[in-house]
Structures are given as structure tokens and as C-alpha cells.
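<goal> How does this chain fold?
<body> The protein record starts here
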Amino acid sequence: MTYASKAPSTRSRRAFTFIELIIVIIIIAILSTLAVVNFSRTFEDIQLQQFGKEVSYLAQYVHTTSIVRNKTYCLIISENTPVEISAAYFDESGIAHAMEGKFSKPVKAPASATLVSLEPAEKKDFYFYPDGSCDPLIIKFSAGNKSSLTLTLQQPTGTLQIDQ
């Protein structure tokens, strides 16, 4: 009596099994989740850097305008959330007026940024004088991903240094 044996098929597989497809999909999902988390951190860093640059441009504009127009101008830091930094000048009667112009628009901090410290703490407005001097200022921000930004207004030049 002869038995028919089942010899292994010499034909190669042409399809993936369901388990193999599920494993590949899970791996892709894990990798894409990691990529999204890293992208959001990078995006917050970029927003914080851009905010620092905009505040620097505003401070330079206010400093230069103060010298050119021979008036006292100031940067005003709001206590709102998100923090907003705007520029103003004072008329002869001492009333503050918002600066107008293309380069004097208020600068808003990104939603993820929080104001960590402000030195000196009791002040919310920092002055630029016609002789080119200014009040000292150090503002520290931090973003949700633990990156930080320090803006230092240096005397007597009125330049704003950005440290990250």
C-alpha cells in the first residue's frame, strides 16, 4: 500500500498574512506618533524664536523712533494671557498713545509660552529716552516643551539680546 505524502510546495508565497499586515500597521502608527510629538515640540520652539525676533524688532524700532522724534517711548507688557508687548508714546500732558505704523504693531506671545519672570518685577512698562538710553529689562518665557527664551534690554544702547 502506498501512501500519498504531502510534499512541501515548491511554489513561493505571493501574499502577506493578516498578522503580518497588522504588525506593519502597528509599527507605522507608533513611528508616526513619535514624529508628531517631535514636530509639535519643534513647532513650539520655532514660535518662541519668532516671538523673540518680533519683540527685538519692536524694541529696535521704538529705540530708533525715540531718538529720531526726540520723545520718550515705552514698551508695555500686558498681564493678559497670552502676553502681549506693545509700544506707546506720551504726549505733553502725559497721556499714553499707542504707536502707529507698520513696525509698531503689538507682539503676542505664542499660546504655549508662559511668562516666567520679569525684572524688575514691579514694572510693566520700560522706557526709551531721546538721548538713546533705556530702562533695564529682563523677560523670561518658557514654552510647553521646556524650551526657554530670555530677552534682555541692555543699557545704555537700547539693544535687545535674545538667549535661548
Summary: The chain has one domain: 19-163. Helices lie at 18-69. The domain at 19-163 is CATH 3.55.40.10 (minor pseudopilin epsh fold).
